[in-house]
């Protein structure tokens, strides 16, 4: 993936946060079965050397695991987190497998009822959550 719009679109897909990274997966629904992947690591994580090292590690993991566990016709984005560079490579591999499994088990949009507090009009207002007696 090379365009910013592709990364922004992937942000609207499913996500699986892990200690060393966040995995985003979005079905493109364009009929193309190709799996695409992108990697992003912000400057908050470290300098250029650290970010490039992290991206190299993610690239190797993606090339190894996505053909086996990835989703056809989907964009996969790995977002590096602070501390991800210090994590053991085998631990990162295990976490990526776990993240891909988590996304495979996640319900599709509209399959499950809304979570508690997610319904309109049921949030906390100015009263701090206490009911007022008329």
UniProtKB/TrEMBL annotation:
It catalyses: Endonucleolytic cleavage of RNA, removing 5'-extranucleotides from tRNA precursor. The keyword Nuclease applies. GO terms for molecular function: ribonuclease P activity. Its EC number is 3.1.26.5. Residues 116-127 have a biased composition (Basic residues). It holds the Pfam family Ribonuclease_P. InterPro entries: Ribosomal_Su5_D2-typ_SF, Ribsml_uS5_D2-typ_fold_subgr, RNase_P. Consists of a catalytic RNA component (M1 or rnpB) and a protein subunit. HAMAP family: RNase_P (MF_00227). This is Ribonuclease P protein component.
């Amino acid at each position: 993936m090379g365009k910013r719009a592709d990364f922004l679109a992937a942000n609207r897909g499913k996500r699986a946060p892990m200690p060393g990274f966040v995995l985003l997966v979005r079905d493109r629904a364009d009929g193309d079965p190709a799996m695409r992947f992108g990697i992003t690591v912000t400057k908050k994580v470290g300098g250029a050397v650290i970010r490039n090292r992290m991206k190299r590690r993610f690239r190797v993991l993606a090339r190894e695991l996505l053909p086996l566990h990835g989703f056809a016709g989907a964009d996969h984005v790995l977002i590096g987190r602070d501390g991800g560079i210090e994590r053991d490579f085998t631990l990162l591999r295990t976490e990526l497998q776990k993240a891909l499994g988590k996304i495979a088990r996640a319900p599709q949009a509209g399959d499950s009822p809304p979570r508690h507090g997610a319904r309109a009009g049921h949030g906390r207002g100015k009263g701090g959550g206490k009911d007022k007696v008329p």
